[in-house]
Design brief:
Blueprint: H1 14-26, E1 41-43, E2 62-64, H2 67-70, H3 83-86, H4 102-128, H5 130-136, H6 141-152, H7 160-166, H8 173-200, H9 214-231, H10 237-244
Antiparallel strand pairs: 1-2
Amino acid sequence: MRREAYQYQEQSPSDHIKNVNRYLHIASSLVPKDPALCHFRIRHPTSSRAILFRRPARLAIRLDPAPFLSAGIPERLQNYDDPISQSMTRPSLPENFEDLDETEQSRAKKLYYNRFIHYHYVKSTAECNELHYAALTDPVGMLRRRLFCHASDPWEGETLALKNWETLTGEARRDVRETMKLDEVQRGADEALEGLRNVVGSFGPEDWVSSKNYEEAMTRSKLMKEQVLAAAALEGEEAEIALHWPLDDMDEEKYM
């Protein structure tokens, strides 16, 4: 879905290299002035949700030289895109949960679970680890951590994630406008893809489905593809959609 914004053309990593170099120029200014946020910390290296519900017999640890960069909610636990989690509202299942069908109950449980983990991670951090919570709630902590994470991530075809956060550090106005415009387009593409996944029944970045639902998911995907192709209006658009349909099998050799 995101390829459409680039006219389905492969993207060069040169822009990403340029943005990483920009990050390196401002990296030193991201270090917080509060010395409490710059101390070494002992952290558990596992960020899986399972670690929250069990106590391992032997606990592996690591020294964290920059807690202000890693004090955010781990990627597997955070749920920042959800307004309920953003407001730190205590999560609950919908009042009509018992009236929902099996599929709707499954989605409601997943949503509740994501909110539950996020909520209790923050609450427990506030109660049990004041220094970590101070870093977690630092006013510029989110910007600092996102810049660091996106600059550290391997390039996967576009540089928008890093570029989008760099606009907050002072880029040219025209550059900012273009980046914000592209970000808006890609957000729409992500929403369309999420809607497609909901219809088909797939999940995750690689669109997994359970083996028992595979045939039904493929049938739904084929039907959705036919409908989108039928609605294609621009010349050549139908061929591009057919070639880049996100739920089709693809040759992964070029991405290895």
